[in-house]
Specification:
The structure holds two protein chains of two kinds. In chain A, helix 5 packs antiparallel against helix 7, helix 7 runs antiparallel to helix 8 and helix 8 crosses helix 9. Chain A contains eleven helices and three strands; from the N terminus they run αααβααααααββαα. Chain A has a two-stranded antiparallel sheet with strand order 2-3. Chain A has two domains: 34 residues, no CATH class; 205 residues, Cytochrome Bc1 Complex, Chain C. In chain A, 62% of the residues lie in helices and 3% in strands. Chain B contains 16 helices and three strands. A two-stranded antiparallel ribbon of chain B has the order 2-3. In chain B, strand 2 and strand 3 form a beta hairpin. Chain B starts with a helix and ends with a strand. Classes of the chains: A mainly alpha, B mainly alpha.
């Protein structure tokens, strides 16, 4: 009896003009409505309406692709919250992180952001592994594998740029190790082979203030310039690029014939 | 007393000159790329690993090793460092999903061997609606993932060390874990190779996989036997050259980037004799018992010959012998790209072996032009 009442109550809300204007299909009860709710919704529209049964099984998909996207969204939200507190300057950066830790009540945003970053690399890895083991990169999905590799690289670059922002010992020395490699780029780095060839008479074009490492750090060492560069890349630049590639990736999943399966 | 002996034993096993050959030997029997090794794998009943009992055994060994390890203060110190916890989790996740994938692959192999279709086939004929059949699975996955993240965040504080100080470098200073493989390569190759050339090649190589693998079988279901070579090569890259090197970089590399056993104290003052020599020095000074020639090209001639032989002749020899079938399948262009990429990748474990077993530093050493291989 109570259940029935609840049902009626829900039904009444579902018939109001406001509800109908927001959710065009109503409560998805019958087959037609269940199809329409996927077709009409902007988010669910990522999915096709119907799928072969093997494709919804966790055994086959491991959910890793979806979870990677979800963790990315979690990182975006926590990242935005962290930006309210964090100033990317050598003077304030460390203190702001300290405050996040000590002053913000129930503050686990930084924890979720950091552990989420680790988790995202892992889920992307496992997604790649599953796609490989099911041979899903084979024609006609070759190009989407390529896009996936780009997404993996971007994921690691996002994580790498975020590493510097707390401005502690771990941060600057990890980035120092990483960015020193850029200085060894052939021709474009001062300590790389061939850089001394790029000279006009006595004037070297590749110096410590004009090589690949300098471009990455915005200076000769990991300092103010590097912090700002990494901050902008981490918060705006790389997320912008990765989102473009994610759009292509998801679009191509659908256009290349949906999820792979034995044919 | 006995406990200490076990720890000593583990420390010795994990010495680079022992663990690396051991892994290389065992790897290709567990994930056999060729028919002959596949038969050996079957004969040794290694495919039993990919059953329920096998999985339980693998996990029991892993858990016992970690529990035993945690009784050791040195091991505990490294493993419980907040930034290392995800790597421990990674070990368990990778092992689990490896088992999970291989279990389904071996089951499908068996079905295909009996002339049946893979297990996914029956399901793929039936269609289900995304709402609710997929949406509720996604919903549960998201909730579990959120719970995991929140619990992890409450239990473990994100690490924050001393404020940045450009004057004091920590020892050892390590790259983020997913780049530890690159940092490990820096030991064996110059920065322009380890830090620039190899990462570029790795990315290009990964992108090239679908264009190089011309095997039409095994699309859309788990399988192993039908695509042994592809899976074995991929696993080798991923498990040995990436995951294993991450483990090495995290747990075995200590102060001054020296090697330490898992139960060894990270002694800052541990001295390792640097007796590494170049190939040219071995050839001229030890074998021919004369001084190094002054002419750079003459001095490095043995190295150049080795490199030319490795990249020039090796693909041809392989095409006639081990990779004969592959060469016929791929055609000359795909085959050349594949073997060159493979030889480059394999040069890393080769150089690691040469370094650890024979103390060879460079094959070609021209420090005058920052050109060392």
């Amino acid at each position: 009896m109570a259940e029935n009442n609840g049902d009626n109550w829900l039904k009444k809300i579902a018939e109001t003009q406001v509800w109908k204007s927001i959710f065009r299909t109503g409560i998805p009860r019958n087959r037609r409505q269940r199809m329409m709710v996927v077709l009409n919704g902007v988010f669910l529209h990522l999915h096709p309406v119907r799928l072969p049964k093997h494709a919804v099984k966790v055994k086959y998909t491991w959910c890793m692709g979806g979870l990677s996207f979800f963790v990315f969204l979690v990182l975006t939200v926590t990242g935005i919250l962290l930006m309210f507190y964090y100033r990317p300057t050598v003077e304030y950066a460390y203190g702001d992180i300290m405050d996040l830790r000590e002053q913000v009540p129930l503050g686990i945003m930084r924890e979720i952001h950091r552990w989420g970053a680790h988790l995202m690399v892992i889920t992307v890895w496992l997604h790649m592994f599953r796609v490989f083991m099911t041979g899903s990169y084979k024609p006609p999905r070759e190009f989407n594998w390529v896009v996936g590799v780009i997404l993996l690289v971007l994921t690691m670059l996002l994580s790498f740029t975020g590493y510097l922002l707390p401005w502690d010992q771990l941060a600057i020395w990890a980035i120092t190790v990483g960015s020193n490699m850029a200085g060894a780029t052939p021709f474009a780095g001062t300590s790389g082979p061939g850089s001394s060839l790029l000279a006009l008479g006595d004037v070297n074009f590749i110096t410590t203030s004009s090589d690949a490492r300098f471009a990455l750090l915005g200076g000769r060492f990991v300092g103010e310039g590097a912090l700002l560069r990494f901050y902008v890349l981490h918060c705006i630049g790389l997320p912008f690029i990765i989102m473009i590639f994610m759009i292509i990736h998801f679009w191509r999943v659908r256009k290349d014939g949906g999820i792979s399966g034995p044919t | 007393m006995t406990l200490e002996t076990i720890k000593e034993f583990v420390n010795i096993i994990f010495a680079p000159e022992i663990i690396l050959p051991l892994i290389l030997l065992v790897f290709f029997v567990i994930f056999p790329p060729t028919d002959r090794l596949y038969k050996l794998n079957k004969m040794l009943r290694i495919d039993k690993l990919w059953t329920k009992e096998g999985g339980i055994a693998i996990f029991a060994i892993l858990i016992v090793f970690f529990l035993f390890g945690l009784t050791d203060p040195n091991f505990k110190l490294i493993v419980t460092k907040p930034d290392n916890v995800p790597i421990v989790g990674l070990i368990f996740l990778v092992v689990f999903f490896l088992w999970f994938a291989m279990k389904q692959a071996v089951e499908n192999d068996q079905r295909i061997g009996e002339g049946k279709k893979p297990a996914e086939d029956a399901d793929s004929k039936e269609k289900v609606l995304v709402w609710p059949d997929l949406v509720y699975i996604e919903f549960i996955a998201l909730i579990l993932c959120t719970v995991l993240l929140i619990a992890w965040s409450i239990l473990l504080k994100a690490p924050l060390e001393e404020p940045a100080n450009p004057a004091v470098s920590p020892n050892p200073s390590k790259a983020p874990w997913y780049f530890l493989g690159l940092q490990e390569m820096l030991v064996y190759f110059d920065p322009w190779i380890a830090g620039v050339l190899f990462p570029t090649i790795i990315i290009i190589g990964m992108m090239a996989i679908p264009y190089l693998d011309h095997n039409e079988k095994g699309r859309g279901y788990f399988s192993f036997n039908e695509r042994k070579m592809a899976i074995s090569v991929f696993m080798f890259f991923w498990l040995v050259l990436w995951v294993f090197l991450i483990m090495v970089g995290t747990f075995l590399r200590g102060p001054n980037w020296n090697f330490f056993g898992p139960f060894e104290f990270w002694d800052v003052n541990k001295l390792e004799a640097l007796t590494n020599v170049n190939l040219s020095e071995i050839v001229y000074m030890i074998w021919l018992k004369q001084q190094l020639p002054a002419n750079i090209l003459l001095r490095e001639l043995p190295g150049f010959l080795v490199i030319i032989g490795y990249f020039g002749l090796m693909p041809l020899i392989l095409a006639k012998t081990l990779f004969k079938r592959l060469f016929d399948q791929l055609g000359s262009l795909r085959y050349s790209i594949f073997t060159i990429l493979l030889l480059m990748a394999v040069s890393l474990p080769i150089k690691m072996l040469l370094r650890w077993a024979f103390n060879i530093k460079y094959i070609v050493a021209i420090p005058e032009f920052f050109f060392n291989i």
